[in-house]
Amino acid sequence: MQESTVVTQRPASSSLYAVEMREIYKAWPGVVASDHVNLRVRKGEIHALVGENGAGKSTLMNILYGLVTPDSGEVLINDRVVHIAGPRDAIRLGIGMVHQHFMLIPPLTVAENIVLGNEPGGLVSGYQRRRANEEIKALSERYGLPIDPNVLVEKLSVGQQQRVEILKMLYRGADILVMDEPTGVLTPQETDDLFAVLRDLVKQGKTVIFITHKLREVLAVTDTITVLRRGKNVGELITRETNQREIARAMVGRDVLLRVEKEPARPGAVVVQVKNLQAQSDRDLAVLHGINFEVHAGEILGIAGVEGNGQTELVEVLAGMRKATGGQITLTEVKDGVAGPAKDITNIGASNARIAGVAHIPEDRRESGLVITESIVDNSILGRHHWREFSRNSIILRLKQIASWANKLITEFDVRTPSAVAAMRTLSGGNQQKLIIARELGSNPIFLIAAQPTRGVDIGAIEFIHRQLIAQRDAGKAVLLISAELDEIRSLSDRIAVMYEGQIVDIVSPEATEEELGCLMTGSSIVNEV
Amino acid sequence: MFLQVLGHVLITSDLWQAALQFAALLLLPALGGVISERSGVVNIAMEGMMLIGAYAGVMVAVATHNILLGVLGAMIAGGLLALVHAIVSINFMANQTVSGIAINIAALGLTNFLLPIQTNGQGITALDSSLRLPQAALGPLAHIPFIGPVLFQQNILFYVVVLIVILLHFLLFRTNIGLRIRAVGEHPQAADTAGVNVRLVRYLCVVSSGLLSGLAGAFLSLGIAGIFNQDMTAGQGYIALAAMIFGKYTPFGAAGACIVFGLGEALSPRLQDTGISANLLSTLPYLLTLVALVGLVGRTMAPAADGVPYEPAAE
């Protein structure tokens, strides 16, 4: 089957593969990131490169773009063996890359960002604004990517920024476009727009390599799939002949439960009440404009929204890490179905919030969840070090008790580590996250805040984490889930609050369609046109 | 009494001439700082580069009996010291503030050590006027009342500095090279993936800051003072640093800040008749620096990647 496709698609005289990577080997100290990987991308196709975190997708693409030098193996572009020593070589060979974290410079204009490194007039010339703008306009018309070249990039939405990234590649004459996790930050509508653009680009003769871990998108837009697992190529699939289960099995190496199984929620009394909550960003601008919601005992309230609409700040205020400039947060303990007195926990600080019963799985585990260079034992009592069972008078640590506590967490939450004294940074992302969750749940909280709980975590661990969140709900806790993954929000939440520009625009049931949620996420209310 | 004297002093062209001269002197290292930090390398070593420039300028000028070679020597000395900073902070990714402090201390020690050796313990005597950067009156313009002496009867390097400010502004904000410098200072990874050679840009910018600071040293020793003394820069490189921040990392902004500080320096000797301690008055420019940093500027926005070493294959 594959053979015949190969024959029929061969163009008359030109090469068959736009990109061919042969036996690519790259090892970092302690890890083999790319273990004799082969990758073949046909001209004019959208080729998915899928795999879990750490499977070696980014390493492979960074090698293709010259950011990483392989230890061995060869790269062919249009059937010619090439040596790519840096991005300059890659650009010359017609390779363009849109990185997961955009490579844009916020205080510069769209045009300046696009032409940077390839400016009209050459290096020793004044910056020719008019010419740059004209060239960009021509490009954006040709590929249907409208943009104002004079706007500062920092004023653009994420979707528009991505458009600038694509134009940047096209401006450099790229024929091979590498998109690294391009949909992670987009709304569903923006994702659809992106797919339309990609299909259009392929029609105009471009080749696209699409890195992702979202299986639905792979099926929606790609032609061929290469699956990587632990640095190895474990298979090539033809999109229209496969399905999500098969891809997931190839990625993980075993069958995976893609759907979350849960009983209907049995919500109880209100545990968390947030009234007219306001707060400022790090730059002293108002980011929360009067947030109102409540979380009941025994339910998961999901907060959906495009990143950067105040979710981060909301979580920080709730966890006591950021000052509220107005409004109120109250916490009520519900025991055996009976609500206790409501406690005001507004601005009481992170330490007191923990004492009051708030547990917090932070969105950035390296930044605020762990001290990455220290041991599992030390990390297991972060924020609880002053508890009576862990220290005498909050001064002298009880090392024995702490060690047995850490070992208990490791066993109960299946944290894979050689030992409890191993440094946190030697663990995989999934295991780091498991330890945080173990620690946070271990304090038997009243209210659990889970911010991006499965970010950068492999599919197996995601399954585990989801089960834990459901278990907390079923144990009668109030759970607040904040996630950029709409699928995660929809499958776990009992109610979904949609956040846009620092406000909750609506609270809907999890049966709401993706389109409806997408509309709310961009600030428009649900319209029943289509 | 004090206010009367101040009012009187403020309208003399003599004061403003001196103020602008100081301003021009401070501006050279301040511009050096602007170009270095715009490319993302923190540079607090202008003090040391200026000092070594002042020293090298005099030694070369005396040895060769050629003022131009003296100026050139000053710039090269400053540039070489900057090259050390560049290697340490770009290649070895060391802490840029520590490197800067080390360079400043090393420059002071080096000049103190070399001076007696190279002059047989005599020190430098006042330079012959043929070895000094001359004052230059710009024709009829120099005769305009007040403005003439203030703007057009200055040291020859003053005019050079005015030219450099304008050129640097143009370079940074109106040319492709400037676009690359700003890109590298804001987001080196973005610049790198766009095909800009991050290290090269940073090297050139840091070395340029040394050339400019070295030139300032020549201005000081060969121009204003006509002599080299131990530690003759006396913290002016640091004031230039403050001017750079006060001026929000722009050439014209730095120029404005330098005029304020220059005025402070020019005022202090002229207010001594008021009965206020000369020692106290000489702290005026430094106090002004503090006030400017705390009160007027507040949080300035440094280039986003300022002081962050760039590692190409991070991850």
UniProtKB/TrEMBL annotation, chain A:
Subcellular localization: Cell membrane
InterPro entries registered for this protein in UniProt: AAA+_ATPase, ABC_carbohydrate_import_ATPase, ABC_transporter-like_ATP-bd, ABC_transporter-like_CS, P-loop_NTPase
What name does UniProt use for this protein?
Sugar ABC transporter ATP-binding protein
Instruction: Quote the PROSITE patterns the UniProt record gives.
Output: ABC_TRANSPORTER_1, ABC_TRANSPORTER_2
Q: Residues in domain ABC transporter?
A: 19-255, 272-526
Which CDD domains does its entry note?
ABC_Carb_Monos_I, ABC_Carb_Monos_II
- SMART domains on file: AAA
Alphabetic keyword roster: ATP-binding, Cell membrane, Membrane, Nucleotide-binding, Repeat, Translocase, Transport
Report the Pfam families cross-referenced here: ABC_tran
Regarding the membrane, this protein is recorded as: Peripheral membrane protein
Which Gene3D superfamilies does its entry note? P-loop containing nucleotide triphosphate hydrolases
GO MF annotation terms: ATP binding; ATP hydrolysis activity
Q: Primary place of residence? A: membrane
**Among the entry's GO cellular component annotations, what is one?**
plasma membrane
UniProtKB/TrEMBL annotation, chain B:
Q: Protein name, please?
A: Sugar ABC transporter permease
**Pfam families on file:** BPD_transp_2
Q: Which residues cross the membrane?
A: 15-34, 41-61, 67-88, 100-117, 156-173, 203-227, 239-264, 276-297
Keyword Transmembrane helix in annotation: yes
* Positions in coiled-coil regions: none
Membrane topology designation? Multi-pass membrane protein
Q: Give UniProt keywords alphabetically.
A: Cell membrane, Membrane, Transmembrane, Transmembrane helix
Q: Which species does this protein come from?
A: Dictyobacter arantiisoli
Q: Which InterPro entries match?
A: ABC_transp_permease
**Intracellular or extracellular location(s):** Cell membrane
Q: What is its main location?
A: membrane
Q: Name one GO molecular function term.
A: transmembrane transporter activity
Claim: Calcium is one of the keywords in the record: no
CDD domains with a match to the protein in the record: TM_PBP1_transp_TpRbsC_like (cd06580)
- Could you give one GO CC term from the UniProt record? plasma membrane
